[in-house]
Each structure stands twice: as C-alpha cells, then as structure tokens.
C-alpha cells in the first residue's frame, strides 16, 4: 500500500473514529470530549490537506479499490477517487468543519448536549468526506444519506422547541423524498454500464458512444436528488426552516457539507449531464427560478439567519446555473468561494446572535458595530464577498459564473437559447438583489441606534469564537487569487475566468444597487421598502394541500377501517363466544339433582322415542 | 302369581326412588332413594328369575351381588355425607354448589 493510500484511509476513518470517541467519552468528562472533538477534526484537517494538495492541478487522480463484492454483479466496490474536484472539496469541508468545532467551544459552552453535538458534527464531516472521495455509487449514497440523517439530528438539537422539531422533520422528509432520485439513478446506471464505479461510468460516457439524451433518465433522476439536497425549487423550503438549529450547524450545512454535496454531485457527474441536455434544461430552469425567488425572500425577511439561508439557496442556484450553462470551473470556484464566505457569515451571525442573547430577529439588533468590532469587520467582508465587491472572492467567482452563462447563451448548445437567456437575465437581476439584501441586513444589524435593550447591552463573544471568523476572512479576501491560477482544477480546465467587460458591468451594477439601498436607508431607516408579509412559501401550501392533507385523510380512513371493520370482527368473535358461554353456563349450576333430572328426563325421552320408532 | 304384580311393585319403588333422589334436599334421604331404586331392580331380577325358571338362577345371584354393592355404596356414601356435614355444617344437597361453573371473578 502506498503512503498516500494510508493517509487517505485516515482521512476517511478519522472523522468517524472521532465521532465514536466523542460520544463514548462524552458525558464522563467535559474537557476530554472537547479535546477529542477538536483534536480529531484537526487531525482530519491535516490529513485531508495532505491528500488534497498532492492531487491538485495536473496530478494523476488517486483511484483505488480496496474491497469489492464478488457475489453481486455488477460488483459493489469500496473505493476512492481523488481528483482536483475532490481535493478542493476535501479542503473546504474539513476546514469549515474544524473551524465550526473550534467555534462551537464558545457557542455551546454551557450546553449539556455538547458531546452528542460534537459527535454528530464529526460524523457529518465524515459523511461529506465519503461523498466527495467515493468512487462507488453505493458508497456515495451511504455518505449522502448519512448527511441527511446528521442534519436531521443537528437541526433538532434544541428538540424542546417545536420549531426545531418541525424543521428537522421537514428537512428529513424533503431531502429523503428527493434522494429516491439518486437511488433509482444508481439502479439505472449500474444496469446500463455494468459497473457502479463513477470513474468507469463517466469515462464510458465521455467516450461518446451515447446518442444525445440517450441517458436522460439517470441524469434527470440525479438532478432531482441534487435539487432536494441543495434546496432548489420546488424543494427549497426546508433550508430556511432548518434555521432553529444551532448557528454553527447552519454554517456547516450551508457552506461545506449538506447543500454543497448537491452541486458537487452534478460537477462529479458532469459528463452524464453533458450527454443529456434535457436534464441540463431542467437544472437551468430550476436555477433561474430559484435564484430570483430566494433573493426576493431574503429581501423581505427580518430574521438574520433566514436572510443568510435564502441567500444560500440563491447562491446554490447560481452554481447550478453555471453548470447548466457549461461553465464547470466557474461553478466549482463559486462553490468554494461560497463555502468560505457563507461559513464566515453564519459564524459571524452566530456571534451576533450570541451577543444579543439568542434572538435572531434583526428587529432587536442595530448599532452593533461599536459593540462587536471584530464581528463587524469580518461580517462586512463576508457580506461584501457575497455581494461581489471588488476585489473579494465573490467578485471573481460571480463574474466568472455570469460570463459563463453569457457564453452559454451566445455560443452554447447545451440548453435552448431562451432558457440560457432567461438564466442570464435572472442571474443579473439576482446579483442586484443580492447586493440589496446584503446591504439591508448589514445596515440593520450594525448601523443606526440599538433597537432593543439587548442590543445596547451586547457583549463581545469569547476569543474562541472570534478567531475562526478572522481565519475565514483571509480566504474571503484573498481567494480571488485562485482565479489567477488556471488549471488548479485539472489539466483540461484551463479556461480564462476573468473578463474585464463583465467585471466592469457587474461592478457598476453593485455600485448602483448599493447606492440605492444606502439612499433608501438614509431616507427611511430600517423599513427600507414596504414589507410584504409572506406567511408561507406557496410551495408549502401546495405540499400541504396535495400531500399532507390527503395522507391525513387516508390515515383517518385506514384508522376507521381498522377500528370499525377489523377490530369489529375480532371483538365480535370474542363477544359471541362469551355470550354462548354465558348461555351454556346456565346449565352448570352445581345442583347435582338438576343434572340427574336432565339425565332421567333424557333417558326417558330416548326410551320413549325408541319405543315409538321401534 | 302373574308377572305384572312384582313388576308393578318394582316400578312403584323405582319411581319413589327417583323422586326421592331428584327432589329430597337431605342427603341421607337422597341415599335412601338410591337404595329404593336398587331394591326395585332386585325385585325385577328375582321376578324374572322365577318367571323364566333359569337353571343357574342368574337373577337371584345378581340380586345378591346388587345387595352387596349397595351395602358398600351406602357405606361409602354415608362417609361422604359425614365429611360434608363436618366441613359445611349441613347436608342440604341444594346448597352444595361447588361444582358450578362460574366466571373467574365470581369464584374469588
């Protein structure tokens, strides 16, 4: 076994081992469980970076199978495949997970459920590592489902709150429903290619032996699965409702693991999607609708965490849009950049929430920039990166994405032209809205006068919470340099990602929309635009009408059938037996003379009858 | 002597015995009913023996057997009656209902 294989095995095993150790030691010693959780994720981080750095750029991908079933055909194999895409995802996932573990030391300092929380975070990381390195579709599915389960448990961390329980159940049900797509796609691909190895399947498709749209079925099924995992329309409602979970978990789910897995899967299976334009069109339309809709929600909500959640939905739609326009590198870079600045934003939001005593409503914040100087500085950078301000990382990746969509609309043959133009229009519009909601949240949290006593008395969070923010702010600022290093994502990914004309236009857009928001803020204060109250996303109402209520009604019918038909038979049998017994028991009264009377009368009767007949 | 005389007597005795067994409440009187029935049978045995002129006198022999069995039976039965009197304080047959089939909750 080569050294790198051993290290890779460590990358996979360490998070799971950490989870197990944390939960085993957990309740016995607080200090030890914290040390194990943070130490384990640090070891995982180092190993993952060792593997990842060795496989960036032009390096030969690490492909290895170390166990395989022989009884089942096609064989199910335990194997990994680390190419530059996996490498950058490994770096992102383990880094964010490590920072979240460190941050949680402060955020959940007095939480009695810390051990199970930390164990689940490790398990979550392990699941994501499995997904990004798996070469076998079943192995990928295991990690994929494990993430769903972990997110369920972590969203329901405060299970005494009805909101948290409902959000967790909703997340689980919606993502699991969509996951069926992946399961059936695996069946279809396995049967079609005689192998469950992703690299083999992708090489076969890349060989070009398939007609256009020949593989539309597995591609569409996978598209549905990733739409569920990444909270795209019409599965978008679970992500904002997952906000009652602890804020570091939101950072983990939104930046590095759960929702990122959806984009990663499309990027990994890109040859499949290239061969199936119908699935690409589906993704493009969904992305165009989602990014705009989610940005509108983000613009209206007054809850800080929900702003960020809707913004995640919108940014993920950018990545899907880029992928469906053919801009693979731009999408992956946007995924990385988003992972970094969204983790930063969520952790900073957690620090704000922590400072004002647990409320996430922006109505109780305001004027926090003097009270929380570090958080203010880092969150400003995060919002600026999200909005795409020069020269932060979001600026480069977003321009690359929009230019990719423009190229796709002008030259592309992947999706119909009108879909591509719709996508481009939606992206530009959403870019303006992104600036608007980022500015709004930033102004409402940090500027003006404190709008509540809690905000006036806000306390600076401990250093263990501030350091991760600063560490994340560094790549948010300097990450744009990656765009200047072509080929980091592989030898055949050397396209030019920086375009002066797009950048100038986008910067103009950012400046104009930012100026409009500032002008509205100066004129009207916190209520910058008329609030539209959106009680529920219409999709939720639709789900309620089409799924929840009919199922409830069916359940009522089934219950009535069980009670009034099946139970009635069983109970009727019992009652009739009892009644017959009651009747017969009348004869057994214990009076011996009565019995004798029956015997005598009976014998006489028999004798008389016999005489009469004989 | 015509056959029907002893047969009538036996029938009357048997009927009185059945009546006694079925109706009397005192256990001793019930036993007396049983004795009456047995002896009615004995009369039948003897009467038919005489009528049929059986060479081995099977009827009379059976009558002797019945008398012996009746004696043994009455001895056993009186012992039971004595024990019933000791445990229950009475020998009223109507009130001896331990054999009745009851609901489990009534038995308690």
Question: Any overview of this molecule?
Answer:
The complex is a heterodimer of chains A (about 625) and B (about 110). Chain A is an all-alpha fold. In chain A, helix 1 packs antiparallel against helix 2, helix 10 runs parallel beside helix 11 and helix 17 packs antiparallel against helix 18 (about 415-445). Chain A is built from 23 helices and two strands. Chain A is globular and about 125 Å long. With about 110 residues, chain B is mainly alpha-helical. Chain B has a single domain (about 5-90), classed as Orthogonal Bundle (Helix Hairpins), CATH 1.10.287.3510. In chain B, about 75% of the residues lie in helices and about 0% in strands. The longest helix of chain B is centred in the C-terminal third of the chain and has 31 residues, at about 60-90. Classes of the chains: A mainly alpha (about 625), B mainly alpha (about 110). The interface between A and B is medium-sized, with 10 and 14 residues.
CATH architectural arrangement of chain B: Orthogonal Bundle
Termini gap of chain A: 103 Å
Tell me how many strands of chain B there are.
Answer: 0
User: Low-confidence stretches of chain B at least 5 residues in length (pLDDT < 50)?
Assistant: none
Q: Fraction of residues of chain B in helices?
A: over 70%
Class derived from helix and strand content of chain B: mainly alpha
Instruction: Give the SSE string of chain A.
Output: HHEEHHHHHHHHHHHHHHHHHHHHH
Molecular shape of chain B: elongated
Number of helices of chain A: 23
Q: How would you characterize the largest beta sheet of chain A?
A: 2 strands, antiparallel
Mean model confidence by pLDDT of chain A: 85
Summed up, what is this model?
By secondary structure, chain A is mainly α. In chain A, 73% of the residues lie in helices and 2% in strands.
């Amino acid at each position: 076994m080569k050294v790198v294989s051993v290290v890779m095995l460590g990358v996979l095993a360490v998070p799971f081992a950490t989870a197990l150790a944390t939960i085993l030691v957990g309740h016995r010693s607080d200090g030890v469980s914290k040390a194990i959780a943070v130490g384990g994720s640090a070891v995982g981080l180092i190993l993952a970076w060792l593997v990842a750095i060795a496989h960036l750029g032009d390096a030969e991908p690490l492909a290895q199978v170390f166990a395989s079933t022989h009884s089942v055909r096609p064989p199910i194999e335990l194997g990994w495949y680390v190419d530059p895409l996996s490498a950058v995802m490994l770096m992102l996932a383990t880094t964010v997970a490590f920072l979240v573990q460190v941050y949680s030391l402060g955020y959940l300092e007095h939480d009695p459920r810390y051990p199970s929380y930390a164990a689940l975070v490790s398990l979550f990381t392990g699941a994501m590592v499995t997904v990004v390195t798996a070469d076998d579709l079943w192995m990928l599915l295991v990690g994929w489902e494990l993430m769903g389960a972990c997110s369920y448990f972590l969203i329901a961390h405060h299970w005494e709150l009805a909101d948290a329980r409902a959000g967790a159940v909703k997340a689980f049900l919606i993502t699991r429903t969509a996951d069926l797509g992946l399961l059936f796609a695996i069946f279809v691909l396995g049967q079609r290619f005689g192998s469950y190895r992703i690299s083999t399947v992708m090489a076969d498709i890349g060989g070009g032996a398939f007609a256009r749209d020949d593989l539309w079925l597995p591609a569409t099924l996978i598209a549905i699965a990733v739409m569920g995992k990444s909270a795209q329309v019409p599965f978008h409602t679970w992500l904002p409702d997952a906000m009652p979970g602890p804020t570091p978990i939101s950072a983990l789910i939104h930046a590095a693991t759960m929702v990122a897995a959806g984009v990663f899967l499309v990027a990994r299976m890109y040859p499949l999607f290239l061969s199936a334009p119908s699935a690409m069109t589906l993704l493009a339309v969904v992305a165009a609708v989602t990014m705009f809709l989610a940005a509108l929600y983000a613009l209206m909500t007054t809850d800080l965490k929900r702003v960020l959640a809707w913004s995640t939905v919108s940014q993920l739609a950018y990545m899907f849009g880029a992928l469906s326009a053919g801009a693979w590198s731009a999408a992956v870079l946007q995924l990385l950049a988003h992972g970094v600045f969204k983790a930063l934003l969520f952790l900073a939001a957690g620090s704000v929430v922590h400072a004002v005593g647990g409320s996430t409503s922006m109505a109780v914040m305001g004027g926090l920039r003097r009270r929380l100087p570090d958080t203010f500085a880092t969150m400003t950078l995060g919002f600026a990166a999200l909005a795409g301000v020069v020269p932060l990382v979001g600026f480069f990746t977003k321009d690359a994405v929009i230019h990719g969509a423009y190229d796709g609309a002008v030259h592309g043959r992947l999706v119909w032209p009108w879909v591509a133009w719709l996508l481009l229009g939606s992206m530009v519009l959403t870019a303006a809205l992104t600036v608007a909601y980022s500015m709004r949240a930033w102004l409402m949290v940090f500027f003006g006068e404190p709008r509540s006593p809690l905000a006036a008395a806000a306390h600076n969070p401990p250093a263990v919470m501030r350091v991760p923010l600063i560490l994340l702010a560094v790549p948010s600022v300097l990450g744009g340099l990656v765009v200047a290093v072509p080929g980091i994502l592989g030898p055949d990914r050397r396209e030019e990602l920086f375009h002066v004309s797009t950048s100038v236009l986008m910067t103009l857009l950012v400046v104009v929309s930012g100026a409009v928001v500032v002008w509205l803020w100066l004129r009207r204060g916190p209520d910058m635009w008329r609030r539209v109250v959106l009680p529920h996303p219409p999709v939720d109402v639709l789900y309620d009408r089409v799924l929840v209520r009919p199922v409830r009604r069916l359940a009522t019918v089934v219950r009535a059938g069980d009670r009034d038909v099946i139970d009635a038979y069983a109970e009727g049998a019992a009652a009739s037996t009892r009644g017959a017994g009651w009747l017969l028991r009348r004869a057994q009264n214990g009076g011996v003379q009565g019995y004798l009377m029956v015997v005598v009368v009976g014998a006489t009767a028999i004798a008389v009858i016999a005489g009469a007949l004989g | 002597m015509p056959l029907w005389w002893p047969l009538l007597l036996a029938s009357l005795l048997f009927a009185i015995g059945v009546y006694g067994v079925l109706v009397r409440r005192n256990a001793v009187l019930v036993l007396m009913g049983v004795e009456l029935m047995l002896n009615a049978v004995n009369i039948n045995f003897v009467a038919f023996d005489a009528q049929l002129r059986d060479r081995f006198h099977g009827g009379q022999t059976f009558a002797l057997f019945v008398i012996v069995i009746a004696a043994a039976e009455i001895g056993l039965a009186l012992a039971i009656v004595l024990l019933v009197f000791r445990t229950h304080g009475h020998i009223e047959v109507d009130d001896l209902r331990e054999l009745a089939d009851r609901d489990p909750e009534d038995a308690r």
